[in-house]
Structure formats: structure tokens, C-alpha cells
Amino acid sequence: MTGDDTKHLPLEDIHVAAGARFGAFAGWSMPLTYPAGVMKEHLHTREHAGLFDISHMKLFEVSGPEAVSLLNRACPLDAGVLEISQSKLTFFLNEAGGILDDLIVTRLGDERFMVVANAGNAVADERHLRELAKGFDARVEPLDRVFLAIQGPEAWAALSRAGIETGSLLFMHGVEPRKNWFMSRSGYTGEDGFEIGLPKADARGLVAKLLEDERVLWIGLAARDSLRLEAGLCLHGQDITPETDPAAAALMWAIPKEVRASGAFIGADALRASVERGPAQKRVGLKPDGRQPVRAGAALFDGDGKPAGHVTSGGFGPSAGHPVAMGYVATPLAKPGTRLFADVRGTKIPVDISSLPFTPHRYRKG
Amino acid sequence: MATTYFTEDHEWLRVEGGVATVGITDYAQEQLGDLVFVELPETGRKLSKGDTAVVVESVKAASDVYAPVDGEIIEANGKLSSDPSLVNSAATGAGWLWKMKLADESQLAGLMDEAAYKAHIG
């Protein structure tokens, strides 16, 4: 990709002024770290409130009399049973059941839904959804929004101080608090927190108010990655891909039982067959022994030196205090406590299969 | 009297009596961010210029540190095993990486002095 194609955040000037160091991610120039550094940013989010500019992600509004039918075809989901304001993690699957993207769908009204998609897949997702929508009385509208996340135990208090009350909103619910705003209680850190899509002009005001609060610190993509990895959350393109289905990815919990049994979503037959025969590999947490991080791409071996799988994400967990990783291993080995070995530059590092998350989720569920 | 040299790969060498103490520059540690692990070389290892001598790992990524000249490792900074953040807090001091006995001191002539390095990083 040439530099000219790189997309820039609408609030880039604010990040520059905050001293951000930028790097490329999914075609965007993104703040990777701020002067505090990844370690402090990570820990600050778990202790106070971290502010993330995630405007590289895309919001779509799906509406119309057949919006429910469209979503039920596009995703392994029963959109019709979602209550208004309820959010659900779901996927776009290909015909083989492979994960094209993971998405959050929130019901805004009887015939209106918000779909939040990953940056790297946004263009393909839009094309896919528009193509499917031709067969339904439904509209797909990409929204031009700044998208912010505020995460951590003091996120709600910081928003309240900035004039946004979040009181009754629970985890995995989303509302439209103001015109052209969308706010959900969700995130990618394992902490209580919110994601807010809003027009650029409003965003400048909100960011200014939030940053007056000493509890709030800008957090870059580097800490976003270590936070989500400790929380056991998947990054599409690494931990889940079009070559992995929800059964192998240990994400079947996101698909309701009735949908698994009789849903007519794309990839349904292939996914049912995969569940039936059992996936050859499963996604697991991996805890490397010692201090040396084990990173994406490292091959895994069993005690006899036979290939056992591979690492899809790995790094250091600042809150866990040790290296953390996840990857895919042969299903018979996919039990917490199993000891495997990761090849890191020719050295075999012992890694134990670990339950996820590495740091407990602290969602506000009720 | 020790002489300090710099490389385009953001390393520094402090040379005295045929022995170089090698580390990464403050600029380099800033670029890498918080280090969480340093893979140190074994004493006695012979390195050619350009060989990977040390791997420094930040939260996010692993980066190679190359031998700036030929030589033999005579000591690695063991303190980094328990406290890799010394490289961040004292890159040109207590955060040194290894000491090597130089095989060919004439190679030093190809390295930069501090003024040239400062110009290099702009």
C-alpha cells in the first residue's frame, strides 16, 4: 500500500497534539502509543479510564421491514428476538462456515439495527451486506462517525462528569442518547466501558471534556492489543479468519441453540457439519513459562516433539504480569494444564494451555 | 580513555582496551517502548558484524540487535534478566547489553561519532 492510500482519523490533529506515535493498521494511520507508553496506558485502563479513538471501525445502520430477515441470513443470529437496545456478538460467515468478520449487532428499533464492523473488513463487509440486501426490503447505510471507546472502572464516572449519564445501560446494550449518537456498554478490554459513535463536531467537544478529567488518558493501539489479549478476545485476521469457523474458534456460545439447529444463515450447513464431526483444532489460551513472550506465528509441539498447533496472538500481559498468548491446538490437547512447547527462534519455550481470560472480565451486567 | 561510537541501527559501542560495551541508544529504546524481555547471548559466542546478538522484546514486538563489528562475547548484562526496563530507563548506562572482545579494531572506522549519529536521527 502506498502512503497516499493510508486513511487518517478525523481527529488526527488531537492525537498529534497529544504526542502520539503513529503506525499503520488495516490501512489506517493509527496512534500506537502516547508519551505514557504501552505499559502505563494498559495499567491505567484497568485502574481508571482509557480513551481510545477507534474511528477506523465502521458503523452501519441496517433498516427496513426485512432488516431482521437480512441479518438472519447474513449472520448466525436471530435478530427478531433481540430486545430493543440489546447487543449481540455475531459473525459474517462464508459458505464453508469460515469467519469473514466478527460484528456487534444492536437493535435500535423494530426495523433498525446498528452493526459495528472491524476496520480491515469494513469495505468487504459493506459489499457483502449490500449484495445480500438486494434480496430483501432493507437498507444498508454506512455512517460517517467518529468512534470512541472509554474503558475501565472509572469510565462511567468520567462520562457522567462530561454530562453523559450511563446509569441504567448494561453490558451488551446500546442506545442513541443524542441525535446521530450511538452509545453501547461494551468494549475490547475486558473492563466495564462504552463505545460511542458520534458526529465529528460533537466528538471534539466530548474529547475535550473527557481529557479535562485526570482519570482519563489516551490509549493507543499497542495497549488496546495487550488489553484484549489478556481479556481473551479475538482479533480478526489473527485469531479468527475465513479459514476458521466458530466451532474451532470456541465461539459457539455466540450462536443461539435454535439458530445452530435450524438457522438459514450463510455457512449453516458447513458449520453444522463441523460441529457434528468436531473441529480438528481449537482455540485456547496459552501461558508461556517464564518471562519470554511467545508471539503470533510460533509453532507449537507436544512433549514428544510432534506438531501440536500454532500461536495466533502473543505478547506480554502487563496486568497478568507474565507473557500471554492464544492459538490453535489439536482438539485432544485443548485442555487447560496441557504442557506444550513453542518454538521461539529455535528454542523450545514451555507453554501451558490456560483458560481464558487471563484477567477477569469486569463487565457491568446488572 | 574510552571512545564511543554509534551505528545506523541505533546501537552505541564504548570501546576501551580492545573491548566494546554495546547497547542501544536512547532514541532506539524510545522507539521500541517498554521492554519486557531481553534474550542475552552466551559468553564465548563469536559474532560476525551483522549477526543477531540480542533480541529485545517490547510488549508488542521482538527486535533484533545486531553485532556492530566482529568479535567474541565476554559478558552479557545479567541484570536485564530480572529488570529489562533498565534498557528504557538507562539505555546508555546500566542498560548495556553485552561486552565483546573486538576481532578487528579497524572496523570501528566505519562507525559514527555522536555528532554524526545525532545528524543521522535528525
Automatic annotation (TrEMBL), chain A:
Look up the coiled coil feature and give its residue ranges. none
GO MF assignments: aminomethyltransferase activity; methyltransferase activity; transaminase activity
Cellular component GO terms, alphabetical: glycine cleavage complex
Domain of life, source organism: Bacteria
Please list the residues that bind substrate. 195
**Catalysed reaction per UniProt?**
N(6)-[(R)-S(8)-aminomethyldihydrolipoyl]-L-lysyl-[protein] + (6S)-5,6,7,8-tetrahydrofolate = N(6)-[(R)-dihydrolipoyl]-L-lysyl-[protein] + (6R)-5,10-methylene-5,6,7,8-tetrahydrofolate + NH4(+)
Q: Which top EC class applies here?
A: transferase
Domain (GCVT N-terminal) spans: 12-256
The Enzyme Commission number assigned here is 2.1.2.10
Q: Where is the Aminomethyltransferase C-terminal domain?
A: 282-358
Q: Which UniProt keywords apply?
A: Aminotransferase, Methyltransferase, Transferase
Gene Ontology biological process:
glycine catabolic process; methylation
Q: Which family would the database say this protein is a member of?
A: Belongs to the GcvT family.
Protein name listed in UniProt: aminomethyltransferase
Q: Which organism is it from?
A: Mesorhizobium qingshengii
Automatic annotation (TrEMBL), chain B:
Please list the residue ranges annotated as the Lipoyl-binding domain.
19-101
Query: Which Gene3D superfamilies is this protein grouped with?
Result: 2.40.50.100
Q: Which Pfam families match?
A: GCV_H
CDD domains listed in its UniProt record: GCS_H
Q: What is this protein called?
A: Glycine cleavage system H protein
Q: Native species of this protein?
A: Mesorhizobium qingshengii
Task: Report the record's Gene Ontology biological process terms.
Answer: glycine decarboxylation via glycine cleavage system; protein lipoylation
Entry cofactors: (R)-lipoate
